[in-house]
Amino acid sequence: MCSAEESVEKDNLRSTGLVGLDLALGGGIPRGTVIIVAGTPTDGLDLFGAQFWRGEEEEESEPNGSYLMIDDEPSEKMYDARAVTNQNLPSLVLGERVVLDSLSTIILRDGIDAALDLIRELKKKTQAEDSNVILLLYKGIHTREEEIRLTRAADGYIELLQRITGSEVERMLGIFKMHGLDLPNQLVPYNILADGLELSTTKRVV
């Protein structure tokens, strides 16, 4: 794990499972980091989490990681973490790719300080094991102060943005924090498909 001042070598990046996002990041997210991905239920936030969890594996393959479902009934191969305490959640972080769905539920249930404590514990674990954790965060239900504290605590922050222009829905992905990497200056357009998010790969985002 590198500090914020160090740059990350390309071979120390892990693919996000989204080709266009990997292109924008120069290869993927730094290994050993905790990343917050924020959006609304209609932005495809859960699809993002599932794509990262699966990685580049075929759909029938076993994901190399764990998907900890706190919000809802878990799908196949996901772990039902609805009754797991925050103190025990880090012990369920197994494999290279871990998704926590969602950090918002922890904040609403146990408070912002409990969520920040969990992020600190997850950072220790990911750094020690060279893994990555994606924390899904739902926008519009937390205070601005809480969002700022969460963004500062995490290693990276990605946001799914959506706006309606006339009769069209415009969806964009923004990378606003990623320790060790140069940030792109542009948003990345994306579409929501039945099996996940498709990001524009027509040009490198600079």
TrEMBL record:
Residues 96-199 form the KaiC-like domain. GO terms for molecular function: ATP binding. Keywords: ATP-binding, Nucleotide-binding. The keyword Chaperone does not apply. Transmembrane segments: none annotated. The keyword rRNA-binding does not apply. Signal peptide: none annotated. This is KaiC-like domain-containing protein. The lineage of its organism: Archaea, Methanobacteriati, Methanobacteriota, Stenosarchaea group, Methanomicrobia.
